[in-house]
Amino acid sequence: MYRIGKWIYRYCPVPKAYGKKVSDCLLQLYGIKEHHQRVQLFWEKKYSIHLYVTFFSLIIGLRERIVTQIFLIAMANFVTHYYLHEKLKEAIVLNREKILEGFFEFSSQFTLMINAGLNYRHALEQSIGDHAFSPYLRKALQQISSGVPETAAFDAIPAQCREMVITRYFNCIGQGQRHGNKDLRKDLKRITEENWQEKLKHHRKMGEILKTKLLFPMMIMFVGILGVLLLPVIIQFQFMM
Q1: How many CB atoms lie within 10 A of CB 158?
Q2: What is the pLDDT of residue 221?
Q3: What is the pLDDT of residue 219?
Q4: Which pLDDT score is estimated for 164?
Q5: pTM, whole model, 2 decimals?
Q6: DSSP letter string, 141-169
Q7: How many whole angstroms separate alpha carbon 174 and alpha carbon 187?
Q8: Which value, to the nearest 10 degrees, does the dihedral of the CA atoms of residues 107, 113, 117, 121 take?
Q9: 234: helix, coil or strand?
Q10: Are 118 and 88 spatial neighbours (Cβ–Cβ below 8 Å)?
Q11: Under 8 Å CB-to-CB from 57, ≥6 apart: which residues?
Q12: What is the rounded CA–CA span in Å between residue 108 and residue 114?
């Protein structure tokens, strides 16, 4: 099935609008490195899964009327498409959560190092840690080591993450680098405290989203089961009239 899915991806065009949406999602999740290969692998696996679903739906509805079989295949593939898309979105949300968790840990440590009197580079070295935000920090440190100005290296981090709280924090650092360190420690401490409040709000919001997230799949399953049960009865009733 995987080889057939690979063949479908190679010779059949991907839906343009949805294809761009998937590409953007994978870009957020994995970055630009090997992006084309990841997009190709995603579509090959997706087509393969849909083929398996279609095959098993045909087996399940083998003794049913052709209309029932078509409905069963369509419903099964729709649920599969929805599930795969939700899993992709869930992976993005989870990755974002990990990056934010790492950022909050870094910002507390970095602010502590700056308040202790360390310069930007040494504070960065001491605050890298080992979390989802660390690769962005290591990349910035490598750029500084290779001769890139500290200001440019720090400015590149929020551009890669695209998170408001991260942008605000590094904008504050950038202003301190450009205009001197006056009030920088006070500003960083204030922003760090605000970030922790944002973290608590974000966790509460995610908890509410997770509660409502299960309702739609349950409704789809209910409609699908109801359709499979009622469709043969409706068809038989029409033949009797």
Answers
A1: 21
A2: 65
A3: 66
A4: 83
A5: 0.67
A6: HHHHHTT--HHHHHHHHHHHH--HHHHHH
A7: 12
A8: -80
A9: helix
A10: no
A11: 69, 72, 73, 76, 77
A12: 10
Separation of alpha carbons 127 and 115, rounded Å: 13
What DSSP character marks residue 183? T
Q: What is the pLDDT of residue 7?
A: 63
Under 8 Å between Cβ of 161 and 191: no
Token match 């957020």: residue?
Answer: 28
Q: Which pLDDT score is estimated for 235?
A: 56
Amino acid 67 reads V
- Confidence (pLDDT) at 220: 63
Reported residue count of the chain is: 241
The residue written with tokens 């038989």 in the block is: 236
Residue with tokens 């290969």: 37
Task: Locate 36 and state its tokens.
Answer: 């084309």
Residue 93 main-chain phi, psi, to 5 deg: -65, -45
Angle at 167 between CA 163 and CA 172, to 5 degrees: 155
Side chain identity at 188, as an amino acid letter?
L
Give me the residue label for tokens 């970030």.
195
The per-residue pLDDT for 182 is: 63
Identity of the residue numbered 237: F
Exposed/middle/buried for residue 208 (C-beta within 10 Å: 0-12, 13-18, 19+): exposed
Q: Name the stretches of the chain with pLDDT < 70.
A: 1-11, 64, 180-183, 202-203, 205-241
